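Lab channel / #folding
Pinned by the channel admin:
"Please post every new chain as: sequence first, then the structure tokens as a reply. Keep commentary short and put observations after the output so the thread stays searchable."

First post following the new format, from NK:
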Amino acid sequence: MYDCEFPLFPLAVIVGRAFMIVPQLDSPVVLVHGLFGYDRVPLGPMGWDYFRGIRRSLEAAGNRVLVPQLPMTDGTECRARRLQWFIRRHAGNEPVHLIAHSMGGLDSRHLITHLEAPGRVLSLTTVGTPHRGSPFADWMLRRLESMFKPLFQVLHIPFRAFVDLTSAACAAFNTRTPDVPGVRYFSVAGRCAGPWLTLPWRLPHTIVGRAEGENDGVVSIQSARWGEHTDVWDGDHLALINVCNHAARRRGLWTDRVDLYGNLIRRLADLGY
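Reply from TO:
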């Protein structure tokens, strides 16, 4: 990967097979992970990012990209406070753009509405976020809470995240967490079907599909819609963060999501950011 600068144009980034223009925003971009997420796992000289290849591509275009590590299984309120601390430490008083996957979108909304001063967050783009909860989270909690919650307590691992992702919890969350005027809200939803629907996704996909229709394997398009515009990408819940679905790749359906994240940044640049 390398970048070249052209007069009167944004930075041009060559990423593998594709040539795409990724604009450089004036403010930092914060990539917020979801449940069981992480910032980066050291793995040899390259490492292993939660958002696979996304940080590198945005930074190659000149963007400042920040990636927090939030408590993996704690509740939205706790994770939002950690996100606030991270942003203040690493961005100072600069306003930021948030791009958040799955539960990270709920954490980000809590941060914007309840914790941060107006103008601190310029935009939020949620990716596969269950804004209205997930029927699969409902199903899991009914069947497995009695088994796993005591184990988590013995191991001193927070359990609140699993409750916060249920339909009832998200309904209550939405009532007390209205969007903030002046912040631009966008979203991405996933559609998992055909070769994308590999064995690990079939049970949750069926449960969510029966209740809410098309989904990415755990979050329906209906639940993921938020803000003024929703993009729908083909792929499972992890493909949304550029984790390769090998079955789709063998069928020639896989495309690197770097280009799609570039489009998210381009939309913000077109809005004047």
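NK: The chain has one domain: 2-188+256-270.
TO: also worth noting, The chain is about 40% helix and 15% strand.
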